[in-house]
């Protein structure tokens, strides 16, 4: 019975050890014994191939063997993934610890920023208290335009917000991050289920004791028909 060709077009050996078809790829591999096809690819081709993988796939690939680990840890591959998943705005920067670390930190920052809006929706004061850094230099400017300075004042302002009958379920878009070692800021547009434009929001975070904490929140004031919408 004839053997079934593999996906790459090579027919597996028959019982007698014959190979019914030899492809160009196997010829290349034979030219350099002990060297895999992956190692013989031009680096640009490898990077291009890896650019089609998402974050979990690239991480899983790095755990298969030493060759795949080397390919999956290539800085250019992580730079391409960053541009695909986040933004092209930071194409000119050179992250101190490489693009893989920068990508991972960006994911962490976006996760914390998403948690911030979940806390507002759920009116979870204790969670908000844990999110903010307990320091006298933290600042919060709500959409009312009022400034609150210092941890205690900021927490009191959020307590007033959460005393309202319902939380606010923001739809957040155009999220952009920038990271400098132990500090990061995030800009975004946040929409409510009301007519009019978005709130323009900036959140600033600092890394302390293994966690990212908010140290600054600034929301623009949204106007509808020349009337100020007071939303914290």
UniProtKB/TrEMBL annotation:
Extent of the signal sequence: none
Annotated F-box domain ranges read: 43-83
Q: Which domain of life is it from?
A: Eukaryota
Q: Where is the SnoaL-like domain?
A: 109-223
Return the SUPFAM superfamilies for the record: F-box domain, NTF2-like
Cite the PANTHER family for this sequence.
F-BOX PROTEIN SKIP8 (PTHR47124)
What is the protein's given name? F-box-like domain superfamily
Tell me which species this is from: Arabidopsis thaliana x Arabidopsis arenosa
């Amino acid at each position: 019975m004839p053997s079934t060709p593999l996906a790459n077009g090579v027919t597996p050996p028959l019982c007698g050890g014959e190979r019914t078809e030899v492809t160009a790829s196997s010829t290349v591999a034979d030219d350099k014994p002990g060297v895999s096809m992956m190692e013989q690819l031009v680096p640009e081709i490898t990077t291009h191939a890896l650019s089609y993988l998402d974050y979990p796939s690239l991480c899983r690939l790095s755990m298969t063997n030493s060759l795949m680990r080397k390919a999956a840890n290539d800085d250019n591959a992580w730079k391409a993934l960053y541009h695909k998943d986040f933004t092209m705005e930071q194409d000119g920067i050179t992250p101190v610890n490489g693009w893989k670390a920068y990508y991972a930190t960006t994911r962490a920052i976006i996760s914390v920023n998403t948690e911030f809006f979940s806390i507002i929706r759920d009116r979870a004061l204790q969670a908000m208290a844990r999110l903010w850094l307990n320091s006298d230099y933290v600042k919060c400017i709500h959409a009312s335009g009022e400034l609150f300075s210092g941890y205690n004042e900021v927490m009191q302002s959020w307590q007033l917000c959460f005393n309202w009958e319902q939380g606010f379920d923001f739809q957040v878009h155009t999220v952009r991050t920038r990271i400098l070692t132990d500090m990061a800021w995030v800009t975004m547009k946040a929409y409510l289920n009301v007519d009019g434009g978005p709130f323009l929001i900036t959140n600033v975070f600092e890394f302390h004791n293994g966690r990212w904490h908010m140290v600054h929140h600034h929301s623009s004031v949204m106007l509808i028909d020349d009337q100020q919408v007071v939303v914290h």
